[in-house]
Amino acid sequence: QVQLVESGGGLVQAGGSLRLSCQASGRTFGTYIIGWFRQAPGKEREFVAAIKWSGGYTVYADSVKGRFTISRDNAKNTMYLQMNSLKPEDTAVYYCAADRTQKVVPETRQGAYDYWGQGTQVTVSS
To answer: 60 near 70, Cβ under 8 Å?
Structure first.
């Protein structure tokens, strides 16, 4: 069993930056795929980015490419999402998720992920 805890959310002005963290407890990420999803008010949860813990292969949603960077720290068993050039439409609750099955590339479907954090709120003001 893996427990995921997100942190780093907050209120920022458009054009600003935030770094989200996702720390795992219960086991190391090992061969997992770790991803970020987000859900804005009144909208479906959507994929943001994901990384293969082993090898570091990354996938991004088109809406965040060039602005967000996903990374990992093996020693801390922690994943990060660096968010730059934030826009009001990035406002959402951001969730960390883990897919325990081994895959060639990360999936973007939320149904592929087995473990979820509680979420952290990101609000971008215009």
So the answer is: yes
Report the distance separating Cα 25 and Cα 4, nearest Å: 7
* Distance between CA atoms of residues 109 and 16, nearest Å: 28
For residues 82 and 89, what is the distance between their CA atoms, to the nearest angstrom?
Answer: 16
54's tokens: 């082993």
Cα separation, 119 vs 126, whole angstroms: 23
Q: Tokens representing 36?
A: 């970020």
Q: What is the pLDDT of residues 78-94, one digit of tens each?
A: 999 999 999 999 999 99
Q: How many angstroms separate the CA atoms of 125 and 110, rounded?
A: 27
For the stretch 9-45, pLDDT in tens is 999 999 999 999 999 988 777 889 999 999 999 999 9
